[in-house]
Structures are given as C-alpha cells and as structure tokens.
Design a protein that fits this description.
Layout: H1 3-25, E1 32-38, E2 41-42, E3 52-57, E4 60-64, H2 72-79, E5 89-91, H3 97-100, H4 103-111, E6 120-124, H5 138-147, E7 151-155, E8 159-162, E9 165-167, E10 185-188, E11 191-194, E12 203-207, E13 210-215, H6 222-232, E14 238-243, H7 252-265, E15 269-272, H8 278-287, E16 295-297, E17 299-300, E18 303-305, E19 309-311
Parallel strand pairs: 2-17, 4-5, 5-6, 6-7, 13-14, 14-15, 15-16
Antiparallel strand pairs: 1-3, 1-18, 3-4, 8-9, 9-12, 10-11, 12-13, 18-19
Helix pairs in contact: 7-8
C-alpha cells in the first residue's frame, strides 16, 4: 500500500469515528412545554416581581425558579389547572429572593400529596457564598429544606441532567454584559470581592429545531450564556429564549449589539419575562425584524411548545 492510500485510509477511519461519536453524544428531546407561573404581567392569576416556569420535557417535570412571594406560584398553578405535586426536581437560577421566595411554601404544600415533591434542588456553585451586605436568605432556606429531607445538587460545569436537558453551570463573563447592581460583595478567605452572581445558571433543552434557553435573570449575560452553550454542549442553533434576561436597563447601543449576536445564533422566538424589560423586548423585536407571534413580553399562563411555538397570554399582545 502506498503512502497516499494509507493516509486516505486513516482519514476515512478518523472521520467515521468522529461521526459515530457525534451521533452518540447528543440527545434531542421530542416533546417540550414551558408554562410561565410567575412574572410581572398576568393574563390570569397574579403578577409579581419574580420568575417561575414549569418545564415538561419528554416525561419529566421540572420547576424552574419559584417566584417571589410564598403563595404566588401555588395560586397561579391552581388557577391554571396545573398539578405540581408530581414535580420532584426544582432549579434555582441564582440566590435572589424573587426566584427562591416560594420554595419553602411550595415544598411544604406539595409534600402533603407527594413526600418526594421538590426533593432535588439543582443550583450553581457559589449560591451559598457568604454575602457581605446581606444575610443571603438561601442559606436559611437550605438548612430548613435539608431538615425536611431535600437534596441540593451543585453544578459548576455544563451537565446533562436528563437526556437532551442541560444545565449550563458557571458561565464565563467574556463580554461586558454587566447587569447587576455592582454594590454587593462576597466574603472570601482573601477578602471581599464583587458579587457578580457567580452561581447564575440557565436550563438548556436540545431539540431538533435548535436549543431552547430558559433563564431566570441571565446575570451572566444572554450572549455570554449562548456562547458558553455552543462551545461546551455543541455548536447548534439557539432558536428560542424564554425567561428573564435583565436587559431592562440596557442602552440602545447594547441592545443593538445584543440583537446582532442573537441573530447570529439563529434566534427566532423569545418570551421576554421578568427583568428583560418591556421596551427592551420591543426594541429587540424591531432590530430582529420579528413580530408579535414570535417575540412577546412574558405573562403568567403563557406557553411555549415545540409543536405549537409561543401561545402568549392576551395581555402580551
């Protein structure tokens, strides 16, 4: 066998092996439904400054964040006819009370029907850090829930928690999308450092239509998060973004930059709830040449599914 034939044979073998690995590594979900349970606007139920959504994906039910007030998510779920008692996994996007405030009351109420309700709590590394300017109420919440038998699972790296369902883990702050107050401090052995909400994580659903990103506040930055997804899960399109993205104070210049980046990821659907900002959502809609069927302000009761796309509450129109 000559050298050319040998090199060609080796290349064919490597390509074949790469294709086998690529096909094996990534699972895409076949069914997904996301229902908003807490945000400011409400077509039904009650609105608040907070965020929560129920994720139903390939037979799994996940509660993403728990709203602000103790009873909001419970009441809204009842009004929407949603049973949360069989939800055993809850994700906390970060430590702020407008995302964790309903956790204890939800757990106690749902445990009356299911002793394992909300028993697995998924969080990002850094959520339990000691904050200098506040008591970090999540520490008290953690202790109370652990006494009730709950388990906290901490993530730093991108992790597939169910087939095709990922948590981002810690997101590097490559671009200066700083969208937090800047006054908070974290206590470390070497002294105080800026509290940039290091635990911020998002949920990522891998579907045949592209990634669906679900965020609580997106304190790591929506573009930083998307680049992290395509670099560390796989380089697919991110077609849908749902939740809070903390663009409420973004300048027109920053929104224009964000829109250009979003377009490069293939984004074509967005439910901008909570801290995204109403004007920011409308500005992005215009910059992306989208419409009210594909980019809407989030409201309690709105839905997204792979089959039907966005079903917004009437107030979002």
């Amino acid at each position: 066998m000559n050298k050319f034939a040998l090199v060609l044979l080796l290349l064919v073998g490597l390509i074949s092996q790469f294709n086998k690995v690529s096909a094996k590594e990534f699972t895409q979900v076949s069914s997904l439904k996301v229902t908003t349970l807490s945000t400011m606007l409400a077509s039904s139920g009650i609105g608040e400054w907070g965020y929560s959504a129920l994720i139903e994906v390939d037979g799994h039910k996940i509660l993403f964040d728990t709203g602000n007030r103790p009873e909001t998510v419970l009441q809204n779920a009842r009004e929407l006819g949603i049973d949360l008692s069989d939800v055993e996994d809850v994700i906390l996007s970060h430590n702020h009370g407008d995302h964790t405030g309903g956790l204890i009351s939800l757990t106690k109420a749902l445990r009356k029907q299911n002793p394992n309700a909300l028993s697995r709590i998924h969080v990002g590394k850094g959520i339990f850090s000691q904050r200098a300017n506040s008591s970090n109420s999540i520490l008290k919440t953690r202790d109370e829930l652990m006494a009730l038998g709950s388990e906290f699972i901490v993530y730093e790296q991108p992790t597939e928690v169910f087939p095709g369902v990922w948590l981002t883990g810690k997101v590097p702050r490559v671009h200066p999308e700083k969208n937090w107050g800047g006054k908070g401090k974290i206590v470390t052995e070497k002294g105080l450092i800026e509290d940039n909400i290091p635990e911020d994580l998002s949920l990522v659903i891998d579907s045949i239509d592209g990634f669906v990103l679900i965020s609580g506040c997106g304190h790591a930055g929506i573009i930083n998060t998307m680049e992290h997804i395509t670099a560390h899960i796989h380089p697919g399109k991110i077609t849908t973004a749902i939740g809070g993205f903390h663009l409420v104070f973004a300048s027109d210049e920053h929104l224009a930059w964000t829109a250009t980046k979003l377009q490069s990821f293939g984004l074509n659907k967005m439910i901008g709830a909570h801290c995204t900002g109403i004007d920011a959502l409308y500005t992005l809609r215009g910059l992306l040449n989208s419409d009210r069927q594909h980019m809407v302000v989030g409201s309690v009761g709105d839905e997204f599914s792979l089959k039907e796309g966005i079903k917004a509450g009437y107030i979002a129109h």
